[in-house]
Amino acid sequence: MTRELVLVGGGHAHVQVLRRLAMASLPGVHTTLVVDRPVAVYSGMVPGFVAGHYGVDDLAIDLRPLARRAGVAMVVGAATRVLPGERRIELPGRPPIAYDAASFDVGSQVAGLDVPGAREFAFATRPIGRFVSAIGALAERMRGAQAFRAVVVGAGAAGVELALALRARLAREGVADVGVALVDAASRLLPGFSDAVAERAAQALQRREVTLVLGAAVARVEPGTLVLAHGGKLDFDALVWAAGAASVELFRASDLPTDEGGFVRVQRTLQVEGHDELFAAGDCARFEPPLAKAGVYAVRQGPVLDANLRAFLAGGRLRRYRPQREFLVLLNLGDGSALGAKWGRALEGPRIFALKDWIDRGFMRRFQVLDARARPTRAFPPMQPDREMRCGGCAAKLGERTLQRALARVGVRHDPAVVLGLATPDDAAAVTTASGDLVVASVDGFRAFTDDPWLVGRVAAVNATSDLFAKGATPRFAMAFVTIPDDESARAEERLFQVLAGARAAFDADGVTLVGGHTTAGGELTVGFAVWGSAASPDALLRQDGLAPGDLLILTKPLGTGVLFAADVQGRARGQWIEAAITSMCRSNAAAARVAREVGARAATDVSGFGLVGHLVAMLRASQTFAHLALDALPLLPGTTTCLALGLRSTAHPENAKARGVLRVDPAAASRPEFDVLFDPQTSGGLLFGVVPARAEEALERLREAGDRAACIGAVEERAQQPALLEITLAP
Q1: Within-domain flag for 383
Q2: CA distance 588 to 586
């Protein structure tokens, strides 16, 4: 890889670039997609969703599996500023991302939200993903209501469609007394459209009893009331704000050429004026002469953008984008019919809606990698890797039995200063110094589980400190060991910087100082840390051998990272699943460890590469106890059950599943897909600790208040003479 391409935004043009990259990669180019949310919403189907014609999955493009198919790294975060002199893009909470070329397809915001009260009391149609999420709650308010008043501000295409969609949705929900009004300061409906289209749209609104209020600027919005500048008022139960397009903050904060509205100026090659390495498409771009903010232009810009990005990076000749002079206008009328217009003619009816529906669904099928059951669609057959890909993260560790056999062959040298070591294996080592201090230390690392080096560094740091937190110790210092796969010095420097910056983000939050380390060149990115700190005394350590009969078992984080990232490697994980997993993996166990100590926990471990059963069985062996574990009590990350039911597993799963030999399993539990999560290797998993029943509820309450998804998953009892160490049942 010699060049860095960054795509900012998941708009209509960029999804086409991603699809084309999936069909034909860019040799020598590493591409990163930066988006504020992992799912893009197709605006052309939103009115149909509001009317009830479509489900949320119909209009959603899951960017994560699409990016994975394209071989594109994905970073979820809102770009805040472009530094063209440094060729970097700033994101909140992490270092800037470097680029050799970058493209922007970030859409627009809704205009007019500076009207007093608009932000507080209106449903803004942009960001479109947030608007779609709000529609579900709005539909619940409609359902069962005797009367409902809806007002839409903005008489452009979006406003007309949404007013009619709301009218149709209210009828669908059985509301008897319905009132819908469409308001705009302009004197004409559908500015920029032909008179024929505007007249037919006005007739459609009138027939469906939507009140049209033109030439009426909004003065302010009060709770339940829209106050007009001429003194009139409109009461509402729901206010939708669709008043045209305004630029996003990104370009206004950057040293880039913009028009008076803050839209970035581009040439016909889609390059930003004065910055040949930067491109922009869709609503965020300002052309000369100006183009209407219509999705049809962004769709047509996609192939040109893809061709020009390839040409620029290869040193070739760029194409010119030529906007179509006339395009087919299709407006959803909400009730199963649509209005279509082209070449001065306008038609209306169910057949026009059928045409619009066919076009919209056909467009979406080109980018929807997974169906509703998370299976590859016909457009994207299952990925066939060139070789067996071993999972990254803690799933890349050697199996527990392999490790135990090797350590047994090495033997142990006795040293009276060792409190925890190979003679008494635990999550961390503990030794006493000559001055009597107790030093607790651990080393942990793994191969990269994602293409984002900053995230790999951050999760590796959280994972490394977890061993000390699990022992009730306080980590203080860390040293890094990083293998960088790039030979070219500038790329190697940038990747190392991102790794260490990610680590600092985690270490700084926990008061851990990075004091040094070692780097080496190798075939793939690998990140590890040696961490050491202190504990008050040997008696204060939360050893693995401290479980006692009667203890309840508490798990502080949900399970599923292993199977989710195994699915991600195959392009079969939804973006929202991976984001939930990343959020969990980035969460430090510091707060959980503090709660465990304060509620009197007597034993603890962190759940990582050997899976829940592997780590729990190690505690049971060390404590010479037996335990019951309830499958239904386990907290799971979103998507875990779906992936397991589809037969997906981490490459470390078979080795971990060898622990089944010490289990006694209820057949009802064994038949469930969730059973295999017991052997799923976790990266930066939660703590597992035992606590007396009298303190268990307090522990759960305090953990949840701190932000952990904690659960009581089982109980400890006497070992007796039974050969099994752990019983798995379905319910507690």
Answers
A1: no
A2: 6
